[in-house]
Amino acid sequence: MKIRCKCGAVIPDNSDFLSYKAHVVADQDWEDFEDMIESGKRVDSWFSFVRTCYQCPHCGRLYVEDASRELHAFAPEGHQTKVLSSSKGPDWRGHMGGNWEDQPVTGHPKGDLWSNGVEGTFKQFDDWSQLEPAYYALFDQLCSAGRLRSAFLRKNGEIVHSWKPDA
User: Fold this and answer.
1) Which one, of 140, 151, 154, 163, lies nearest residue 110 by Cα?
2) Using the 8-state DSSP alphabet, how is residue 28 labeled?
3) What is the reported pLDDT for 81?
4) Distance (Å, whole) CA 99 – CA 128
């Protein structure tokens, strides 16, 4: 999904863990929401209480869903564009992944490397011998900084490396 902001920017919602997206629960629904969580009901049943909110990274305008899922825009007084990012700020732990296909879909690169942490990365590769060391270098960098929640490296559909921290 893409939202066209009134400033002209496009706000994409095509991924998880977006720093400009949040979920809100109305205060009047909060106890019902808590009761549903405590009862152990399925996560998808919680979504009746949750509304999505986006912030334009260019102008700071907020878009908030109402109960019928219609978006409403609110313009900020200043130019703060990161009000929806993690409360952990730069300490938020993100995910990273690498993908390689010897025979990619037409128009796509053979490989890519991405992370959605605070530093955010997306690189494309045409040579496995470049992707693999780049993956491990980024993995080491993010791990040593304590900024990684999970990681994987996939080659031709097979997981070559997978990591999650010990619980």
Assistant:
1) 154
2) G
3) 73
4) 10
| Helix boundaries (H) for 18-61 | 30-38, 43-46
What is 57-103 written as a DSSP string?
TTT--EEEE-TTS-EEEE--SS----TTS-TTGGG--EEEEEEE-SS
Residue-level pLDDT at 118: 58
Partners of 148 in the β-ladder? 94
Could you tell me which of 136, 132, 160 has the C-alpha nearest to residue 148?
Answer: 136
Q: What angle do CA 102, 95, 162 make, to 5 degrees?
A: 55
Q: In angstroms, rounded to a whole number, what is the distance separating the alpha carbons of residues 71 and 68?
A: 9
Residues 5 and 20: their CA atoms lie apart, in Å, by 13
Q: What is the pLDDT of residues 24-66, one digit of tens each?
A: 988 888 888 888 888 877 767 777 888 999 999 999 999 999 9
Burial (CB < 10 A; 0-12, 13-18, 19+), residue 105, is exposed
Length of the chain: 167
Percent of the chain with pLDDT over 70: 96
Taking the model in full, what pTM does it have?
Answer: 0.66
The 3-state DSSP class for residue 30 equals helix
